[in-house]
């Protein structure tokens, strides 16, 4: 059950944020990002006490992903993968003429619809509500979002189709717009897990590795490879990790 709840959190976080005219702002990405390839591993503590990647976590397929962005900074396509050559599902995103996301559809590798979502926004352009539907169009659950003064998400709550409270997440965001802490509450509104994140960054201040400490224990290690649009509209790769920031 915990895995399913955290799965819902990761999916939802990927779909929410601020300044909806540009998905790069939602994800706190800097520069002309063209694509991101992410892989998640078990955190491995070396003999020297450093944390590095261990075995790739196939079951955390929602973090083994590849997504592309158009030149307006909006996601166009996203794959979730068990491994390099095994896709779990594919996401297609749609936008209106102002670049505001209006729809999301998730498909199996064979092209069958799994789920879809629509959204509501406040006057500042933040998504404040997401409604999810199954492949037959039946309403499944609802998410609500709250934001801080800088339009960073600070709280997410989830309710089932009958309006029953399921879970709540609280977030603390650093100056780069990245998560530095997340608190997960269960259906009884009890604190269940506390996540603290540490990062390394490339030269454009986008993180390329992230370590998740769950209740004080290094648990997950994530790598990102980022491609950028160049001035002549061809992609360049930037995988440097020249700076490190740690929150404990």
How many E strands? 17
Structural class: mainly beta
- The topology string of helices and strands comes to HHEEEEEEEEEEEEEEEEE
Instruction: Please give the order of strands in the largest beta sheet.
Output: 1-3-4-5-6-7-8-9-10-11-12-13-14-15
Task: Provide the fold topology.
Layout: H1 2-15, H2 23-26, E1 33-45, E2 51-56, E3 65-69, E4 75-83, E5 86-95, E6 101-107, E7 113-121, E8 127-134, E9 139-147, E10 153-160, E11 165-173, E12 179-185, E13 191-201, E14 207-214, E15 217-229, E16 235-238, E17 243-245
Antiparallel strand pairs: 1-2, 1-3, 1-15, 3-4, 4-5, 5-6, 6-7, 7-8, 8-9, 9-10, 10-11, 11-12, 12-13, 13-14, 13-17, 14-15, 15-16
Outline the structure in words.
The structure is a single chain. The protein is mainly β and 248 residues long. It has a single domain (2-245), classed as Porin (Beta Barrel), CATH 2.40.160. It contains two helices and 17 strands. The chain has a 14-stranded antiparallel barrel. Strand 7 (113-121) and strand 8 (127-134) form a beta hairpin. The two termini are 27 Å apart. 24% of the residues are buried. The model is unreliable at 8-20 and 234-248 (pLDDT under 50).
Please describe the structure with a list of short key phrases separated by commas or semicolons.
single chain; 248 residues; mainly beta; Porin; 14-stranded antiparallel barrel; 17 strands
Quickly describe the structure.
This protein is mainly beta. The chain is built from two helices and 17 strands.
